[in-house]
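ARCHIVE CARD
Drawer: 12
Card no.: 0347
Subject: one protein chain, sequence and derived structure
Cross-reference: see card 0346
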Amino acid sequence: MVVVQLILLKIALEHRPLPATKGGEGSMPFSGLERGSPFDIQRPYNFWQWRSHKPYWHFLLYLLGGLIVCEVLFRPMEPIYDAYSVLIGYLGLSIEATLPIPQLIANAQSQSCKGFRLSVLAAWIGGDAMKVFWFFTSTSEIPLAFKVCGCFQAACDCLLGIQYFIYGAGGDEAVLKEHAMEEAHWARGHRASHSHTRSMSAGKRGATFSDTEAE
């Protein structure tokens, strides 16, 4: 799963839209979100919204290195290591359980599920349904955190299914709404380029010389 996620990250970074104008926001992740949305906030150090590819891979390497260092340092100290293990487990479960939330918000804002494959939705709902069923029917003891996070994620998947049923795959109107900001950037760049061309043309037309000046 980790390898697949790394491949998906590489593909997502390589296929980001190019900036419409020099210094524009077109190449930044989430640049098309509507102003005033829950994600329209300035993140510290632009976390996970970097323009370059390298910071993403550097962050993952630093995260892996930090986890290895903590594992080596806390392993001999059993009480601290137990608490550390529980903390890592809860963080991992919480992050996994909240994965569908950004997709839910994006679908609600664009009134469309365009780009979200039905096969992915079916896999999410089916997989989480079987996981929750196993949590509550297993003969072995399953921690409460697994059950709570599993139920929350399954509920989010069901909401995604409802959105797909209501919005569908989306049409041309949803596409235009989704790319409104990118089109605005393109329009501003086009007007600036057109204005610059006209000024240059006017300058060339005005730069006429008489025979006396030419001599």
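Annotation on reverse: Confidence is low (pLDDT under 50) at residues 174-194, 196-215. Residues 100-170 form one domain.
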